[in-house]
Amino acid sequence: MSQKTIIAPSVLSADFSRLGEEVEAVCEAGADWIHLDVMDGHFVPNITFGPPVIKAIRDRTDKVFDCHLMIEPAERFLGAFAVVGCNIITVHAEATTHLDRSLQAIRDLGCKAGVSLNPSTPETVIEYVLDRLDLILLMSVNPGFGGQDFIPSVIDKVARVRTMIGARPILIEIDGGVTPETAPLVARAGADVLVAGSAVFKGGREAYAGNISALRTAADEPRLAALGSR
Fold first, then answer.
1. Residues 54, 99: contact at Cβ < 8 Å?
2. Which domain holds residue 103?
3. What is the pTM (predicted TM-score) of this model?
4. Is 37 a catalytic residue?
5. What tens digit of pLDDT does each residue of 157-192 get?
6. Are 75 and 97 in contact (CB under 8 A)?
7. Which of 32, 134, 175, 192 is an active site residue?
8. Which one of the listed residues 37, 40, 134, 192 is annotated catalytic?
């Protein structure tokens, strides 16, 4: 398990008119992954982008492309996202009838498999697919829009998921309302990856490095302390 908190800026908050340049800028500023929020206007009340846009920016960096599919159904599109260069593909437990099959399909495509849970979805729904997983993404806002306030009850959920994982090499990712104030709370509970949109992209490109550093600094110490106590 990585000792460093992984920071994954969500391009949902980037300037879409210069998306490739924005990806390069946050990577140069210290981003570890690039988080891609794919929304369909059906599973969530918003539409963002799909495989053609991801393909267009894939050559801007060799960083991990962390693809979060907020679409229903997801299964028929998994291959399209794999072929354009997504390294991790995450599907929502709420958006698929056959979760085990979807996770196996992602791995068969050569990608790492993730599952996402909405704030009101209990973690017990993934108990029987843990051995199919590389990543568990816990939504700390209701999916569909950026800039929402963090839901505090997710902190205890992170801790329960961390216990459920046990010794399995599964990363816990938090998406929604992540700031330097909320980052230490989820890091202490067991989070490994922080998705941040507004908190990274605010202030323009000259602020990106400082914004990423602030998130990492806020999360690393409590996360290391938690790792040491396990």
1. no
2. 6-228
3. 0.96
4. yes
5. 999 999 999 999 999 999 999 999 999 999 999 999
6. no
7. 175
8. 37
